[in-house]
Design brief:
The chain is an alpha+beta fold and about 400 residues long. It contains 11 helices and 18 strands. The strands form 3 sheets. Strands 1, 2, 3, 4, 5 and 6 form a 6-stranded antiparallel sheet that branches. Strands 7, 8, 9, 10, 11 and 12 form a 6-stranded antiparallel sheet that branches. Strands 13, 14, 15, 16, 17 and 18 form a 6-stranded antiparallel sheet that branches.
Length: about 400
Protein backbone atom coordinates (compact mmCIF):
# COMPACT_ATOMS: atom_id res chain seq x y z
CA UNK A 1 0.00 0.00 0.00
CA UNK A 2 1.49 3.15 -1.04
CA UNK A 3 1.91 6.13 1.41
CA UNK A 4 -0.42 9.16 1.07
CA UNK A 5 1.32 12.32 -0.08
CA UNK A 6 0.82 15.57 1.92
CA UNK A 7 0.17 18.51 -0.42
CA UNK A 8 2.93 21.19 -0.42
CA UNK A 9 2.24 24.60 1.37
CA UNK A 10 2.03 27.39 -1.19
CA UNK A 11 4.66 30.23 -0.96
CA UNK A 12 3.25 33.59 0.21
CA UNK A 13 2.80 36.09 -2.52
CA UNK A 14 4.84 39.30 -2.86
CA UNK A 15 1.75 41.39 -2.07
CA UNK A 16 1.12 39.65 1.25
CA UNK A 17 4.77 40.27 2.27
CA UNK A 18 4.38 43.99 1.61
CA UNK A 19 1.23 44.17 3.71
CA UNK A 20 2.92 42.36 6.56
CA UNK A 21 5.88 44.79 6.45
CA UNK A 22 3.58 47.83 6.40
CA UNK A 23 1.66 46.50 9.38
CA UNK A 24 4.89 46.09 11.32
CA UNK A 25 6.01 49.63 10.55
CA UNK A 26 2.63 51.00 11.54
CA UNK A 27 2.80 49.15 14.84
CA UNK A 28 6.28 50.61 15.55
CA UNK A 29 5.07 54.10 14.70
CA UNK A 30 2.11 53.77 17.07
CA UNK A 31 4.41 52.51 19.83
CA UNK A 32 6.80 55.45 19.23
CA UNK A 33 3.95 57.97 19.45
CA UNK A 34 2.66 56.40 22.65
CA UNK A 35 6.18 56.39 24.13
CA UNK A 36 6.68 60.03 23.19
CA UNK A 37 3.34 60.95 24.74
CA UNK A 38 4.34 59.35 28.03
CA UNK A 39 7.74 61.05 27.87
CA UNK A 40 6.08 64.44 27.34
CA UNK A 41 3.65 63.80 30.19
CA UNK A 42 6.54 62.86 32.44
CA UNK A 43 8.45 66.00 31.46
CA UNK A 44 5.39 68.17 32.13
CA UNK A 45 5.08 66.62 35.58
CA UNK A 46 8.73 67.38 36.33
CA UNK A 47 8.35 70.96 35.14
CA UNK A 48 5.31 71.39 37.39
CA UNK A 49 7.37 70.16 40.33
CA UNK A 50 10.30 72.45 39.53
CA UNK A 51 8.29 75.53 38.54
CA UNK A 52 6.10 77.14 41.24
CA UNK A 53 2.69 77.96 39.78
CA UNK A 54 3.29 75.88 36.67
CA UNK A 55 0.37 73.57 37.59
CA UNK A 56 -1.96 76.45 36.73
CA UNK A 57 -0.56 76.76 33.24
CA UNK A 58 -1.65 74.98 30.08
CA UNK A 59 1.26 72.52 29.87
CA UNK A 60 4.42 72.55 27.82
CA UNK A 61 3.19 74.97 25.23
CA UNK A 62 2.49 77.53 27.95
CA UNK A 63 5.82 76.80 29.62
CA UNK A 64 7.86 77.34 26.50
CA UNK A 65 5.80 80.42 25.76
CA UNK A 66 6.84 81.86 29.15
CA UNK A 67 9.33 84.28 27.68
CA UNK A 68 6.64 85.85 25.54
CA UNK A 69 4.30 86.05 28.54
CA UNK A 70 7.10 87.56 30.64
CA UNK A 71 7.55 90.30 28.05
CA UNK A 72 3.81 90.93 28.07
CA UNK A 73 3.78 91.13 31.88
CA UNK A 74 6.71 93.56 31.79
CA UNK A 75 4.89 95.70 29.26
CA UNK A 76 1.81 95.71 31.45
CA UNK A 77 3.86 96.73 34.50
CA UNK A 78 5.53 99.53 32.56
CA UNK A 79 2.18 100.83 31.37
CA UNK A 80 0.83 100.86 34.92
CA UNK A 81 3.99 102.64 36.14
CA UNK A 82 3.80 105.13 33.29
CA UNK A 83 0.20 106.06 34.05
CA UNK A 84 0.86 106.33 37.80
CA UNK A 85 4.02 108.41 37.34
CA UNK A 86 2.28 110.66 34.83
CA UNK A 87 -0.49 111.26 37.33
CA UNK A 88 1.99 112.16 40.09
CA UNK A 89 3.94 114.39 37.70
CA UNK A 90 0.85 116.33 36.65
CA UNK A 91 -0.29 116.66 40.27
CA UNK A 92 3.12 117.99 41.40
CA UNK A 93 3.32 120.31 38.41
CA UNK A 94 -0.09 121.80 39.09
CA UNK A 95 0.70 122.26 42.79
CA UNK A 96 4.09 123.82 41.99
CA UNK A 97 2.65 126.31 39.52
CA UNK A 98 -0.16 127.32 41.88
CA UNK A 99 2.13 127.66 44.90
CA UNK A 100 4.77 129.49 42.87
CA UNK A 101 2.28 132.17 41.92
CA UNK A 102 1.09 132.43 45.54
CA UNK A 103 4.66 132.58 46.91
CA UNK A 104 5.75 135.24 44.41
CA UNK A 105 2.89 137.38 45.59
CA UNK A 106 3.57 136.69 49.27
CA UNK A 107 7.25 137.70 49.20
CA UNK A 108 6.35 141.12 47.76
CA UNK A 109 4.23 141.90 50.82
CA UNK A 110 5.24 145.10 52.62
CA UNK A 111 5.24 143.12 55.87
CA UNK A 112 8.81 141.93 55.35
CA UNK A 113 10.26 145.41 54.88
CA UNK A 114 8.35 146.51 57.92
CA UNK A 115 10.25 143.88 59.91
CA UNK A 116 13.59 145.06 58.54
CA UNK A 117 13.94 142.09 56.17
CA UNK A 118 14.85 142.24 52.47
CA UNK A 119 15.17 139.63 49.74
CA UNK A 120 18.69 138.72 48.67
CA UNK A 121 17.29 138.05 45.20
CA UNK A 122 13.76 139.21 44.34
CA UNK A 123 13.54 136.53 41.63
CA UNK A 124 14.51 133.78 44.02
CA UNK A 125 17.49 131.42 43.89
CA UNK A 126 17.13 128.10 42.07
CA UNK A 127 18.94 125.03 43.41
CA UNK A 128 18.82 121.36 42.45
CA UNK A 129 16.09 120.73 45.03
CA UNK A 130 14.00 123.89 45.16
CA UNK A 131 13.45 127.61 44.62
CA UNK A 132 14.60 129.70 47.62
CA UNK A 133 13.50 133.16 48.68
CA UNK A 134 16.10 134.31 51.23
CA UNK A 135 15.41 137.25 53.54
CA UNK A 136 18.39 139.16 54.97
CA UNK A 137 18.36 141.11 58.23
CA UNK A 138 20.32 144.37 57.99
CA UNK A 139 20.21 144.91 61.76
CA UNK A 140 22.51 141.90 62.32
CA UNK A 141 24.89 142.28 59.40
CA UNK A 142 22.65 141.12 56.55
CA UNK A 143 22.60 137.57 57.88
CA UNK A 144 20.13 135.23 56.09
CA UNK A 145 17.41 135.12 58.73
CA UNK A 146 14.52 133.49 56.90
CA UNK A 147 14.29 131.21 53.86
CA UNK A 148 11.04 130.28 52.12
CA UNK A 149 11.60 127.28 49.86
CA UNK A 150 9.36 125.82 47.19
CA UNK A 151 10.35 122.28 46.22
CA UNK A 152 9.75 121.10 42.68
CA UNK A 153 6.91 118.88 43.86
CA UNK A 154 5.14 122.07 44.98
CA UNK A 155 5.64 121.63 48.73
CA UNK A 156 6.73 124.50 50.96
CA UNK A 157 9.55 124.46 53.53
CA UNK A 158 10.63 127.25 55.86
CA UNK A 159 13.99 127.69 57.61
CA UNK A 160 14.40 130.30 60.33
CA UNK A 161 18.10 130.93 60.98
CA UNK A 162 19.56 127.46 61.17
CA UNK A 163 16.52 125.33 61.88
CA UNK A 164 13.53 124.06 59.98
CA UNK A 165 10.27 125.72 60.93
CA UNK A 166 7.50 123.18 61.39
CA UNK A 167 4.44 123.92 59.24
CA UNK A 168 0.97 122.53 59.78
CA UNK A 169 0.37 122.25 56.02
CA UNK A 170 3.40 122.27 53.74
CA UNK A 171 1.21 122.21 50.64
CA UNK A 172 -0.44 125.54 51.35
CA UNK A 173 1.48 128.77 50.82
CA UNK A 174 -1.20 130.90 52.46
CA UNK A 175 -1.28 128.96 55.74
CA UNK A 176 2.53 128.69 55.77
CA UNK A 177 2.96 132.47 55.41
CA UNK A 178 0.44 133.08 58.19
CA UNK A 179 2.36 130.79 60.56
CA UNK A 180 5.74 132.35 59.70
CA UNK A 181 4.46 135.89 60.27
CA UNK A 182 2.98 134.86 63.64
CA UNK A 183 6.34 133.40 64.67
CA UNK A 184 8.26 136.56 63.67
CA UNK A 185 5.76 138.80 65.44
CA UNK A 186 6.51 137.07 68.76
CA UNK A 187 10.10 135.81 68.45
CA UNK A 188 11.96 138.16 66.10
CA UNK A 189 13.73 140.09 68.88
CA UNK A 190 14.89 136.85 70.56
CA UNK A 191 16.04 135.53 67.21
CA UNK A 192 18.07 138.66 66.54
CA UNK A 193 19.69 138.41 69.95
CA UNK A 194 20.79 134.84 69.16
CA UNK A 195 22.20 135.97 65.81
CA UNK A 196 24.24 138.67 67.56
CA UNK A 197 25.68 136.10 69.98
CA UNK A 198 26.54 133.80 67.08
CA UNK A 199 28.28 136.62 65.21
CA UNK A 200 30.28 137.54 68.32
CA UNK A 201 31.34 133.91 68.73
CA UNK A 202 32.37 133.67 65.08
CA UNK A 203 34.48 136.82 65.44
CA UNK A 204 36.15 135.52 68.62
CA UNK A 205 36.96 132.21 66.94
CA UNK A 206 38.48 133.99 63.95
CA UNK A 207 40.66 136.13 66.24
CA UNK A 208 41.77 133.02 68.13
CA UNK A 209 42.76 131.19 64.93
CA UNK A 210 44.73 134.18 63.66
CA UNK A 211 46.46 134.60 67.02
CA UNK A 212 50.16 133.85 67.48
CA UNK A 213 49.72 130.76 69.67
CA UNK A 214 47.43 129.01 67.22
CA UNK A 215 49.40 130.10 64.16
CA UNK A 216 52.48 128.47 65.74
CA UNK A 217 50.55 125.20 65.81
CA UNK A 218 49.48 125.77 62.21
CA UNK A 219 53.13 126.02 61.15
CA UNK A 220 54.34 123.11 63.29
CA UNK A 221 51.63 120.74 62.11
CA UNK A 222 51.45 122.02 58.51
CA UNK A 223 47.75 122.74 58.89
CA UNK A 224 45.52 124.30 56.29
CA UNK A 225 42.60 126.36 57.64
CA UNK A 226 39.65 126.41 55.23
CA UNK A 227 37.34 129.44 54.97
CA UNK A 228 34.27 129.45 57.19
CA UNK A 229 31.33 127.58 55.66
CA UNK A 230 27.73 128.65 56.27
CA UNK A 231 25.76 125.43 56.80
CA UNK A 232 22.14 124.96 57.72
CA UNK A 233 22.63 124.66 61.48
CA UNK A 234 26.07 126.15 62.07
CA UNK A 235 29.10 128.03 60.82
CA UNK A 236 31.97 125.56 60.31
CA UNK A 237 35.75 125.92 59.94
CA UNK A 238 37.58 122.77 58.79
CA UNK A 239 41.27 122.07 59.39
CA UNK A 240 43.25 119.84 57.00
CA UNK A 241 46.70 118.25 57.20
CA UNK A 242 49.38 118.62 54.52
CA UNK A 243 47.71 116.09 52.20
CA UNK A 244 44.36 117.95 52.41
CA UNK A 245 42.70 115.36 54.67
CA UNK A 246 40.20 116.89 57.14
CA UNK A 247 41.45 116.21 60.67
CA UNK A 248 39.55 118.73 62.83
CA UNK A 249 36.74 121.26 62.78
CA UNK A 250 35.21 124.03 64.86
CA UNK A 251 31.60 125.10 64.52
CA UNK A 252 29.38 127.76 66.03
CA UNK A 253 25.84 126.47 66.42
CA UNK A 254 23.15 128.84 65.19
CA UNK A 255 20.53 127.69 67.67
CA UNK A 256 22.45 128.82 70.79
CA UNK A 257 25.86 130.27 69.71
CA UNK A 258 27.62 127.30 71.33
CA UNK A 259 31.21 126.59 70.19
CA UNK A 260 32.00 122.93 69.43
CA UNK A 261 35.48 121.79 68.30
CA UNK A 262 36.60 118.23 67.58
CA UNK A 263 39.63 116.31 66.32
CA UNK A 264 39.77 112.92 64.60
CA UNK A 265 43.01 111.56 66.07
CA UNK A 266 42.62 111.32 68.92
CA UNK A 267 38.83 111.48 68.78
CA UNK A 268 38.24 114.36 71.16
CA UNK A 269 35.63 117.10 71.48
CA UNK A 270 35.15 120.20 73.58
CA UNK A 271 32.43 122.81 73.76
CA UNK A 272 31.89 126.13 75.46
CA UNK A 273 29.62 129.11 75.64
CA UNK A 274 32.48 131.37 74.49
CA UNK A 275 35.92 131.06 72.93
CA UNK A 276 37.50 132.87 75.88
CA UNK A 277 36.04 130.28 78.24
CA UNK A 278 37.74 127.35 76.51
CA UNK A 279 40.78 129.03 74.96
CA UNK A 280 43.40 127.08 76.94
CA UNK A 281 41.59 123.79 76.44
CA UNK A 282 41.26 124.59 72.74
CA UNK A 283 45.02 125.10 72.40
CA UNK A 284 45.63 121.84 74.28
CA UNK A 285 43.18 120.03 71.99
CA UNK A 286 44.99 121.13 68.83
CA UNK A 287 48.42 120.57 70.38
CA UNK A 288 47.54 116.93 71.09
CA UNK A 289 45.97 116.46 67.65
CA UNK A 290 47.71 114.04 65.30
CA UNK A 291 48.13 115.95 62.04
CA UNK A 292 50.37 113.42 60.32
CA UNK A 293 49.56 112.13 56.86
CA UNK A 294 49.01 108.43 56.19
CA UNK A 295 52.54 108.23 54.74
CA UNK A 296 54.06 109.95 57.75
CA UNK A 297 52.29 107.53 60.05
CA UNK A 298 53.61 104.57 58.04
CA UNK A 299 57.19 105.91 58.13
CA UNK A 300 56.98 106.51 61.88
CA UNK A 301 55.57 103.02 62.45
CA UNK A 302 58.34 101.43 60.38
CA UNK A 303 60.97 103.50 62.19
CA UNK A 304 59.61 102.42 65.59
CA UNK A 305 59.51 98.78 64.47
CA UNK A 306 63.13 98.88 63.29
CA UNK A 307 64.18 100.43 66.61
CA UNK A 308 62.27 97.71 68.46
CA UNK A 309 63.92 94.92 66.46
CA UNK A 310 67.39 96.43 66.88
CA UNK A 311 66.91 96.40 70.66
CA UNK A 312 65.54 92.86 70.72
CA UNK A 313 67.96 90.52 72.61
CA UNK A 314 67.38 87.69 70.13
CA UNK A 315 68.22 89.96 67.18
CA UNK A 316 71.34 91.22 68.95
CA UNK A 317 72.39 87.60 69.45
CA UNK A 318 71.84 86.91 65.73
CA UNK A 319 74.01 89.88 64.82
CA UNK A 320 76.76 88.68 67.15
CA UNK A 321 76.67 85.12 65.78
CA UNK A 322 76.91 86.51 62.24
CA UNK A 323 79.86 88.73 63.19
CA UNK A 324 77.83 91.83 62.34
CA UNK A 325 76.60 94.99 64.00
CA UNK A 326 74.36 97.93 63.15
CA UNK A 327 76.01 101.34 63.11
CA UNK A 328 74.48 104.69 63.97
CA UNK A 329 71.56 105.69 61.77
CA UNK A 330 71.80 108.74 59.53
CA UNK A 331 68.65 110.63 58.53
CA UNK A 332 68.02 112.90 55.56
CA UNK A 333 64.87 114.48 54.14
CA UNK A 334 64.30 111.41 51.95
CA UNK A 335 65.49 108.41 54.00
CA UNK A 336 66.89 106.91 57.19
CA UNK A 337 69.94 104.66 56.69
CA UNK A 338 71.19 101.97 59.07
CA UNK A 339 74.69 100.64 58.15
CA UNK A 340 75.27 96.88 58.55
CA UNK A 341 78.93 96.52 59.56
CA UNK A 342 81.21 93.44 59.76
CA UNK A 343 83.76 92.71 62.48
CA UNK A 344 86.41 94.65 60.60
CA UNK A 345 84.29 97.80 60.54
CA UNK A 346 83.45 97.61 56.83
CA UNK A 347 79.94 98.56 55.78
CA UNK A 348 78.44 95.55 53.97
CA UNK A 349 74.93 96.84 53.32
CA UNK A 350 72.71 99.78 54.07
CA UNK A 351 69.28 99.17 55.56
CA UNK A 352 67.13 102.04 54.23
CA UNK A 353 63.75 103.37 55.35
CA UNK A 354 62.42 105.27 52.34
CA UNK A 355 60.42 108.29 53.53
CA UNK A 356 58.69 108.72 50.18
CA UNK A 357 57.04 105.29 50.37
CA UNK A 358 57.52 103.96 53.90
CA UNK A 359 59.23 100.87 52.47
CA UNK A 360 62.28 99.22 54.01
CA UNK A 361 64.98 98.54 51.42
CA UNK A 362 68.56 97.29 51.20
CA UNK A 363 71.44 98.59 49.10
CA UNK A 364 75.15 98.02 48.74
CA UNK A 365 77.44 100.17 50.87
CA UNK A 366 77.68 102.83 48.14
CA UNK A 367 73.89 103.08 47.89
CA UNK A 368 73.69 101.23 44.57
CA UNK A 369 71.57 98.19 43.62
CA UNK A 370 68.69 99.03 45.97
CA UNK A 371 65.98 96.41 46.38
CA UNK A 372 63.15 95.64 48.77
CA UNK A 373 63.96 93.80 51.98
CA UNK A 374 62.12 90.64 50.88
CA UNK A 375 64.04 90.57 47.60
CA UNK A 376 67.32 91.16 49.42
CA UNK A 377 66.69 88.20 51.71
CA UNK A 378 65.92 85.94 48.72
CA UNK A 379 68.95 87.15 46.77
CA UNK A 380 71.32 86.48 49.67
CA UNK A 381 69.85 83.02 50.17
CA UNK A 382 70.22 82.22 46.48
CA UNK A 383 73.70 83.73 46.35
CA UNK A 384 74.88 81.64 49.30
CA UNK A 385 73.74 78.42 47.64
CA UNK A 386 75.38 79.30 44.33
CA UNK A 387 78.60 80.64 45.92
CA UNK A 388 78.43 83.80 43.88
CA UNK A 389 81.33 85.30 45.79
CA UNK A 390 83.66 82.94 43.87
CA UNK A 391 82.27 83.94 40.48
CA UNK A 392 84.51 85.99 38.17
CA UNK A 393 81.43 88.13 37.46
CA UNK A 394 81.24 91.18 39.69
CA UNK A 395 78.84 90.89 42.58
CA UNK A 396 77.09 94.07 41.53
CA UNK A 397 76.38 92.78 38.03
CA UNK A 398 75.27 89.40 39.36
CA UNK A 399 72.96 90.95 41.92
CA UNK A 400 71.42 93.18 39.26
CA UNK A 401 70.82 90.15 37.05
CA UNK A 402 69.27 88.22 39.91
CA UNK A 403 67.07 91.15 40.76
CA UNK A 404 65.78 91.25 37.20
CA UNK A 405 65.08 87.52 37.27
CA UNK A 406 63.35 87.76 40.64
CA UNK A 407 61.11 90.57 39.49
Amino acid sequence: MSAKKTPATPEPSVKSKKLSLQGGLLTLLILAVVFQFFQISHLEKKLVELSPGAEDSGGLSDFFGGEEESEEDELGTLLFDFVNNLGVYEENKARYEANLAALQTAVQDAYWNGKGLSLSNPQGTYTEQDLDYIFLDASVGNVPLLTLSLAYDGKVEVHVYGSEFELSDGQSVDSSIVEVKAHLDTDLDTLRSTVQKVNAQRTALSIFILGQDFQTLVMEKSLKVLPEADQLGSYVIVFQNSEATPIAECEVLKKNAQLVCSTQAPAEELSGASVAEVQEDLLALFTAMDARTALQKKVDEQKAKIAEVLEDPAFKASLKNAGLSVGSATETETAIQYPIVNAGGAVLRLLILDKSTGEVKVSLSDGQDTQGLVTAVQLLEFSSKKKLWTSPVSSRTMLSSLMTLTI
